[in-house]
Amino acid sequence: MNKFELETHDIPISWRRWFWLIGLVYGFSIAASEPIIGAVGTPPAAAQASIDLMFEPRLHQSLSTAEPAVQAYYDQGITLLAGYRWLLAERSFKQALQLDDRLAMAYLGLAKARWSLGDFDSARHNLDRAVALAVDGPAREKAWVRFGVLQFEALTSPAAERLDRTARYRAAIDQRLRIDIDDPHLLVLRGTAAEAGSWLRGQGGDVDAVAWFSSALRHDPEHWGAHHFLAHAYENLGQYQLAERHARIFAEGLPQIPHAWHMVGHLLPRRCAWSETVEILERVDRLHRQQADELGLALEQDWHFGHNLRLLAAVRLHLDDQQAAGELFAETFSLAGKGWRGGFYCTPWVEYLLSAGSSSEALQVARRCEQDTDAAGAFFGAALAGEALIALGRVQEAEDAFELATDRLVALTPTLLQHPVGLMQRAECRRSLQFLEAKLTLQRGEIDLGSQRITRLLDQLIAGRSADSWARAVLRARELESFARSSGHEDLVTTLRARRQQLTKL
């Protein structure tokens, strides 16, 4: 069997009904028939000759252009989008537009790169340009631009409208599938549209998404985006063996994409393959630094560099390499910008410092984060300052910090609900606030209630299926155990130590 084909005996029986249903409706079989290769796959090497490409394009989507260089830059762009290399994808689409400034699909790709980076204003501008240029273009390209518009509307609509907008987006793709049922790019797009409450780009899929991505692989077994997104979907479903299988295929197909190897590395803790986990995450780190030097990228602008550092730090901490973990958490914090990312990178460094008994330094870091002009960073700073103040014995100031953080979260919530993943971000904020509240409950003398709250919150992190949740649990478990010990709550120390052992037996 071709190693890229989906083996149906690997799929739980309850899921096969979904594959059978799609096969019945659209007239193809998951278990039979040879893969169909049409206007997909890797473009011929001859088409890439004498074109200055950063990476070999490993995906191909035929355009109306007759210029090989334009096609090659566009293919490179969609390959990079599939690998979450948004800054480089943006660069590639701009190279295509330098040669053909009327290419609607390149403007669409540019819009996707910008909204993936959180720049919605620039995304809207490029999307408007794509719409204007697509009017007189081929029907297929016009349809793809329309999908981009509908996806953007779903991502940026108020929370109350998001489900309806997403349903409208899916319906438009379904309508086009009646014409292009054998287009793997369209099948992959439909799989990403099956997500709920996320960026609609392949990270949040479940059973429905598995069916669509697997269908795409029947038509193009080397659609690396489908393998990538299947790895995420299987991970979300707790099917870690299948997730790792597709992650490895993704990495072998796109070996120069850091996130491809990161996908493998972030699944390995689930089978306690620690030495290989460290080896792969360090390989990702080297790739990032090497490409930053060669391609002129600023590491602090690359979301994935810090994301990988944070996971590598958690693995090092789990392996009791305290010095390496501290250095990695500190470097991650040095990347912190304004807003949500600032809080995201501030939190693990403060928690690490608290776990190491460096409470004064933890408070200084939290105060720096609190000075962020963005409401998200200011919230995290206040909540983390409260935890540091408790560790320093300044409980009344911690109570004040809790009240301030609570007010800031109330003020921040309307903004979060306008964000594509705002519900998840709000949940992260609330969890941070709840840990502070649980610690304050203990300080007020409500020992049983405080202990129950702390244990329940940690259990929620441990139960998470993602590597991010595991990494948070590793760090939080150590920090909470240190807090309980310094507070003299030995029963809670024993409970938390048992929870830490669970993280070794995944």
Brief overview, please?
This protein has 506 residues and is mainly α.
CA(first)-CA(last) distance: 31 Å
Number of helices: 24
Q: What would you call the structural class?
A: mainly alpha
CATH superfamily of the largest domain: Tetratricopeptide repeat domain
Please state the overall shape, judged from the principal axes of the Cα atoms.
elongated
Largest sheet: none
Alpha carbon gyration radius: 24 Å
Q: Helical proportion?
A: over 70%
Q: What is the helix/strand order?
A: HHHHHHHHHHHHHHHHHHHHHHHH
Tell me the fraction of residues in β-strands, as a range. under 5%
β-strand number: 0
Can you tell me the number of structural domains? 3
CATH class of the largest domain: Mainly Alpha
The CATH topology assignment of the largest domain is: Serine Threonine Protein Phosphatase 5, Tetratricopeptide repeat
Low-pLDDT windows of residues: 1-50
Mean pLDDT value: 88
**Architecture of the largest domain, CATH level 2?**
Alpha Horseshoe
Q: What do these coordinates show?
A:
This protein has helices at residues 13-26, 45-48, 68-82, 86-99, 104-116, 120-134, 139-156, 159-177, 184-193, 207-219, 224-236, 240-253, 258-267, 274-295, 303-318, 322-334, 340-355, 359-370, 375-391, 395-416, 422-443, 447-463, 467-486, 490-502. By secondary structure, it is mainly alpha-helical. The longest helix is centred in the middle third of the chain and has 22 residues, at 274-295. Residues 1-50 have low confidence and may be disordered.
